[in-house]
Amino acid sequence: MTHLDLTALRTLNAAVLCDVLDSLGLMHQAMQPFVRPLDDQLQLIGRARTGLYMPVYQTRTGENPYEVEIALVDHLKPNDVVVLACSGPTDRIAPWGELLSTASQVRGAAGCVTDGLVRDVKQIRAMNFAVFHGGIGPLDTKGRARMVERDVAVECAGVAVRPGDIVFGDVDGVVVIPREREAEVVRLALEKVAGENQSRAALRAGELLGDVFRRLGIL
Q1: Residue ranges per domain, the chain?
Q2: % helix / strand / coil in the chain, to the nearest 5?
Q3: What residues are paired with 113 via a beta bridge?
Q4: Environment class of residue 146 by beta-carbon count within 10 Å: exposed (0-12), middle (13-18) or buried (19+)?
Q5: Helical H segments across 29-148, by residue range
Q6: Along the 219 residues of the chain, how does pLDDT read in single tens digits?
Q7: Taking the domain 12-179, which CATH number applies?
Q8: Is the dihedral of CA 193, 199, 202, 206 positive or negative?
Q9: Is 32 in a helix, a strand, or coil?
Q10: 61: left (phi over 0), alpha (psi -120 to 50) or beta
Q11: pTM value surpassing 0.85
């Protein structure tokens, strides 16, 4: 399958994408609203690289509890989005911080989404690296959780995510576009944005909302 040019999504927003996905019967593609951006001004667009976490309650002597996590980050490609499924909301699993953000940004990754916790918030914000999180806390995963698989189908904040799916995030939330529907979804979303621009111009010119809706059918 030929992948879509992701720059086509830069003029879109999460709300428009949700409307289009809903119209296609894909009504469970928006992550639960507890997942929020560290920086409201940043947009996140890329393809999912997934990690699945499970809770643990001890660390074995001599083991590397970050082994799978490190492998995922070291194999990131430009425009990848790290999606970490932690069965959130959680107050225990905190998989993301400054050093992982630094390593990912250097490799060209677009950002990270997790329904777990993040830490090192001040440093990540200074990097202008897009991170969407299920909460903020200082805990490390060591002795609390471990990534057990990478690049597998996961569920993050209520949405099924597969490697290669498009992940789009902005201040309104995070939306996942299934890769087999991406061309159709983006085409329809661009058409809807054009229609919304017409509606906005008409409303600013003083037309009544009811008249504009009857004429253009967009709200």
Answers
A1: 12-179
A2: 35, 25, 40
A3: 83, 132
A4: buried
A5: 67-74, 98-106, 121-127
A6: 456 889 989 999 999 999 999 999 999 999 999 999 999 999 999 999 999 999 998 877 878 989 999 999 999 999 999 999 999 999 989 999 999 999 999 999 999 999 999 999 999 999 999 999 999 999 999 999 999 999 999 999 999 999 999 999 999 999 999 999 999 999 999 998 887 878 888 888 888 888 888 887 777
A7: 3.50.30.40
A8: negative
A9: coil
A10: beta
A11: yes
Tokens read off for 72: 């995922």
Alpha carbon distance 57, 110 (integer Å):
32
Q: Which token pair is 174?
A: 């995070």
Question: Residue 13's closest CA among 199, 160, 157, 173?
Answer: 173
Angle, in degrees to the nearest 10, between helices 182-204 and 209-216: 140
